[in-house]
Design brief:
Strand content: 15-25%
Helix content: 40-55%
Largest sheet: 8 strands, mixed
CATH superfamily of the largest domain: P-loop containing nucleotide triphosphate hydrolases
Number of domains: 2
Structural class: alpha/beta
Distance between the termini: 51 Å
Strand order of the largest sheet: 8-9-7-10-6-11-12-13
Number of strands: 13
Number of helices: 18
Radius of gyration: 23 Å
Length: about 375
């Protein structure tokens, strides 16, 4: 498709820069450019434009957005901002624009944005799920990776994983990935990114599952600050139908931020020596202040044997809190899958682990809140 572009940019230097970017693409034709929005409204009618790039850094231009929608009814209107913000993007879409992107941008950024707008999930607000364990070696990574694949298969929609276990995240190792970029580079560049220019920072694992890998060194963890992390999650909401966040044990700024951002927070513990119930109970106390705690916070136990309804009820009784799911001990299956860069639900779809994860995925699909179901 050929794009006939009308560009409005108040800053002369930026106007020249963006004009040069647009002209590098043979499928883009810059039919008009100007510094004043009023000039575009008066003179732009004569051009058969189908793409309006509008500087929204001034209140005047924002106030004229409705006029642009009426004047160019067949055009996609994209707001240009010095920094992408979720609230501003939502306001623009509500007013009739298609979205917002940060400037300056590259031709590839613009193409990715327009391609993304054509996809169904571009207008979605992803459900965010945060996964926390009181201690390490809980089976949390196994749950996240396999649940991501199950959600992608059942929904047919894209799923993103963010490895925010900043010091010892192992998503890249689990998937046998050699990432060119990580969460560190994403937060470093966040001021210059929009959702669709963030997308290349995610590495594809399957057709509909991608992962933003964690830091390559533990000391890089301090480079990921909560505010930038918050923005990355907001952008990811525009790329995926589901966003699964892996966080480290303990309660630090990133863990708290991830939990606050999420529609669902899963607390994962491995049944081993009996202390897991105590750890889970103490962790739940942190979340009791949330009025909707039982709707948002979900207990999951792994390596449960026997893994059946009676054991789940016993765990619930000991914990004094609903247990959302119990997963069996499938160490050999999980190890074999991980060694091959695959997921257990892919290798053995008939396994009990697969069945229980698929059941959890079914409960999550299409809901903004999941409630305890004893069945």
């Amino acid at each position: 498709m050929e794009h006939k572009v009308l560009l409005v940019e108040n800053n002369r230097i930026m106007l020249e820069r963006l004009s040069s970017v647009i002209r590098t693409r043979p499928d883009f034709e810059l039919v008009m450019r100007c510094q004043k929005a009023q000039d575009a409204l008066r003179q732009g009618r004569v051009f058969d434009t189908n793409l309006v790039l509008l500087d929204i850094e001034t209140e005047e231009n924002l106030d004229l957005l409705a006029d642009f929608v009426r004047t160019f009814p067949r055009a996609d209107i994209i707001g240009l901002s010095n920094r992408w913000e979720r609230e501003k993007s939502q306001q623009l879409v509500a007013a009739g624009a298609r979205g917002c992107m940060a400037k300056p941008f590259t031709a590839e950024d613009l193409v990715n944005l327009l391609q993304g707008l054509e996809e169904e999930h571009a207008v979605m607000e992803a459900e965010v799920m945060t996964f926390f364990s009181p201690k390490g070696k809980s089976g949390k990574t196994t749950l996240i990776t396999n649940l991501a694949l199950s959600l992608a298969r059942k929904s047919g929609k894209p799923v993103g994983i963010i490895d925010a276990d900043l010091q010892f995240g192992d998503m890249a190792v689990f998937f046998n990935l050699q990432p060119k970029s990580s969460i560190v580079e994403a937060v470093r560049d966040v001021h210059f990114l929009s959702p669709f220019s963030l997308k290349p920072y995610f590495m594809p694992v399957t057709e509909n599952v991608s992962v933003l890998c964690g830091t390559v060194r533990p000391d890089y963890a301090e480079l990921v600050q909560p505010k930038a992390f918050h923005t990355i999650v907001d952008m990811a909401r525009n790329l995926f139908a589901y966003v699964l966040i892996d966080i480290a044990p303990g309660f630090g700024p990133i863990q708290i931020e991830a939990a606050e951002l999420a529609e669902h927070t899963f607390i994962v513990a491995m049944v081993n020596d009996g202390f897991e119930i105590q750890h889970m109970r103490r962790t739940l106390e942190i979340f009791r202040d949330w009025p909707d705690c039982e709707e948002r916070v979900h207990a999951v136990f792994t390596r449960v044997s026997p893994c059946d309804g009676l054991m789940q009820q016993q765990l619930e009784k000991e914990l004094g809190y609903p247990v959302k799911s119990v997963l069996p001990n499938e160490y050999l299956l999980v190890s074999n899958a991980a060694n091959n860069g695959r997921m257990a639900v892919d290798i053995k779809p008939t396994a009990q682990l697969t069945h229980n994860i698929d059941k959890l995925a079914d409960q999550l699909r299409g809901r903004k809140r999941i409630r305890w179901d004893k069945s």
